[in-house]
Amino acid sequence: MARYRELVLALVAVVAITLLYGGYTQAVGVPASSGLVGHALGIIGFLLMLMTEVAYSLRKRAMRRPRGTMRAWLQLHIFTGIVGPYLVFLHSAWSFNGLAGALTLMTAVVVASGFIGRYIYTAVPRTADGMVIEAGELQLMLDAVRGEATRPATQGTEPAPVAAHRRERDTARRLRELERQMAALRWARRLLAVWHTIHIPIGMALFVMAFVHIGAAIYYATLLR
Amino acid sequence: MHRRPLGCLTGTALITAFVVTLLVLAAAAATGNGIFSPGRLNAVAAHGPLGGVASHAELETRCAACHPAAWSGARMADLCLACHTSVGVEIASGGGLHGRLAMTDGCRACHTDHRGAEASLTLANPSGFAHERTGFALAAHKLRDGGGTFGCRDCHTASLVTFSAQTCLSCHQARDPVRMTPHLEAFGPTCLTCHDGVDTYGKAFDHHTYPLVGGHAQASRVTPARTSMRDGWGRPAATATPRPPGLTPGSTTT
């Protein structure tokens, strides 16, 4: 439960928003994108999406006086990264024309990419500060176990052949386990790097389109009244 | 420790931003800014060709036909009236529906578009509609005889912007035939000449049917006497409620 806390909280928020939206739709009708409620959905949703991107990026690079753990900031990133796009989706009023429609699609793509990234990310063991455990650290542990396996059995109360056999068996199992972990870590880190090089540009494309959309809405619907 | 730049300031992100900006500009140029349209324009050719087009749908890729450039100083309402000239005439004369209802907020207070090819161009908000500005208040038409509230289509059977007095007659004749028959004979079927929905009977009301007496006489605006004196329901004035003794039309009380 604690592992999926941000997802559960996001789900609760999405259900609550859906109930409110459904109630409003029943009572008044589908809120138009350009109406008070529709605009509020779009503006709050966009601010949450902007916060999703900016706050986490800044925290990742806060070297001198970091506030809060990376894990907490990532959880916030995931929570706002789900709730914000959901509000923006409701802002669309089920109309997906032109740039606004492409923007909704792009939002869905970035959120889907975020979900994939979260699962790759959790496959990589991390310390509380979110730093990836260095492969060298695992290598040191591996070497220690190897050294133990090659050392002659001189201590212990059991008969030498039995003790040596058990230690060899245990060490072999530990070796296989460590090698498997290292291979998984290398694979996950490589995958995470690839994912990162995709997630950031598509996020950037999303924000460029969003700013153009906002500019066009202000120009056509506010300035030109 | 090497300090990485913000994600949005990396080379890949900046190149992506540049490419996406170019793509959006190209799409805007190719569609005549149509990519910014929030929805299809109305395609119903209701009023015949105006401004060279049969319906707004023909302006789908000509945004500037309705949306003037911000620096031009023109408002959208100016461009509406450039084609819908009859509405401009109504507003200028203060007559007709638009003359009475023209909002300071421009056409957009009541009209919109981009809601689909078949969608209405008029925003229906019956509860907020200032019906008294049409010359007929709905103060006495809130609840129907059979229960429930009046809907627009109860009275405006053919169109929301037209009204036939026959609608009044068919309903009121059925409600009170004893009174309505002589009333109709006396005043004719042009109900709105006298009735404005709050029974002030309008400026054209001939007050001789209800002679004002006492202090009321001073405040009244008496029109020339009618040859046939009748009460409000068309009955001869003699059958109306007698005036209080001692008071005659034109007399004053102190």
Percent strand of chain B equals under 5%
End-to-end span of chain A in angstroms?
A: 51 Å
Strand elements of chain A, count: 0
Gross morphology of chain A: elongated
| SSE string of chain B | HHHHHHHH
Largest interface: A-B, 31 and 34 residues
Shape of chain B: elongated
N→C terminal distance of chain B: 101 Å
Overview of the structural elements:
The complex is a heterodimer of chains A (225) and B (254). With 225 residues, chain A is mainly alpha-helical. Chain A folds into two domains: 94 residues; 92 residues. In chain A, 78% of the residues lie in helices and 0% in strands. In chain A, helix 1 runs parallel beside helix 3 and helix 5 runs antiparallel to helix 6. Chain B has two domains: 113 residues, no CATH class; 112 residues, no CATH class. By secondary structure, chain B is mainly α.
Offer a concise description of the structure.
Chain A has 225 residues and is an all-alpha fold.
Task: Spell out the key features of this protein.
heterodimer; A: 225 residues; mainly alpha; 2 domains; 6 helices; elongated; B: 254 residues
Layout of secondary structure:
The complex is a heterodimer of chains A (225) and B (254).
Chain A: H1 5-27, H2 36-60, H3 70-91, H4 98-123, H5 135-150, H6 160-223
Helix pairs in contact in A: 1-3, 2-3, 3-4, 4-6, 5-6
Chain B: H1 11-30, H2 76-83, H3 85-93, H4 96-101, H5 152-155, H6 166-175, H7 177-187, H8 215-219
